[in-house]
Task: structure prediction
Amino acid sequence: MVGRARVAQTGAVSADAELDDVQAVRTLLGREPQAGFRVVVRDAAGSPVVIRNRPLLDDGTPMPTRYWLVDPALVRVVGTLEAAGGVDRAEADIDPGELEATHRRAAAERDAALPADHPGPVPSGGVGGTRTGVKCLHAHLAHLLAGHDDPVGVWTAERLELDVGRYRRESW
Result:
């Protein structure tokens, strides 16, 4: 077992991620992670696909995006779908009530992870920090891959002909 990681730039201890995961995510993001996270979805080779962020950055700033897609191939194809008008199409295709319920569930899950004694501002919104509608297909797909009911994530996976069953969810 690899020891717990220290996030070098901020100096904060990442109590959730192992050192090899921090290094892998640092490379995938192209920057230092700004908060503690845990890899929650991996590909067949064991590489990180989705990370679950703590609800606050290391400096206490709210982090509304709980699930973050880090796999470069998926990031690229989802970006192409977004650039082709995917956000507007998904929002038009998904029942607004289902979408609102998804945002409520995502916010409740994230908010439950907030420290009870946190004195500062807290994240708001649902998936990707969105209060209404669809903001980011990446966040919705990450939310779905992490095991949550997300109709926009399903819509995105269908458009990409993505076999979501090929990814391995970590137990947590």
Notes: Residues 38 and 111 are 17 Å apart (CA to CA). Residues 4-169 form one domain. The longest strand covers residues 13-18. Strands lie at 4-6, 13-18, 37-42, 48-53, 67-69, 168-169.
